[in-house]
Design brief:
Elements: H1 3-11, H2 26-39, E1 55-59, E2 74-78, H3 84-91, H4 93-98, E3 114-116, E4 122-126, E5 132-133
Antiparallel strand pairs: 1-2, 3-4, 4-5
């Protein structure tokens, strides 16, 4: 263990220093948004309505909970943060958590399934390339 590791352990109570959340801008953010829209089929993840305008990309792990801009952390929802299904998620965090639309601070979005209307209301796992799986990801041994 190096001097810096000892220092970090002291200042962070023996835990590793937190990694800052991923923040994307410009072209990288546009690519991320396109992957989410394509994966979700331009449909609201909660109710399934087709969204051509008036929808928004929701952070399953809220930014206030250190959620980043990873594709696995985003879903397309109708409405804004106060209207439609996006508003429902923010007004009903316990119910939203039960279906994977709201995550806790320590949750990894790739490891928590979301009940997704665009996939027949099934629980699916999302990855950071814009893919969906009906089975949980395999963890490295």
């Amino acid at each position: 263990m190096s001097y810096n590791d000892d220092l970090n352990a002291h200042w962070f109570g023996g835990k590793p220093k937190p990694v800052p959340p991923l923040r994307l801008t410009g072209k990288d953010l546009a690519i991320r948004n396109n992957r989410i829209d394509k994966r979700d089929g331009q449909r609201c993840a909660r109710c399934g309505v087709i969204i051509w305008s008036g929808g928004s990309r929701h952070h399953r792990k809220f930014k206030s909970r250190r959620g980043g801009d990873e594709v696995s952390n985003g879903v397309l929802l109708c409405g804004s943060g106060t209207t439609g299904c996006h508003g429902w998620v923010h007004s009903n965090p316990v119910s939203a958590r039960m279906v994977g639309l709201a995550l806790n601070t320590n949750d990894n979005p790739r490891l928590v399934p979301v009940r997704h209307a665009a996939f027949g209301g099934m629980d699916v796992w999302l990855d950071d390339l814009g893919n969906v799986s009906l089975t949980p990801p395999r963890l490295a041994a």
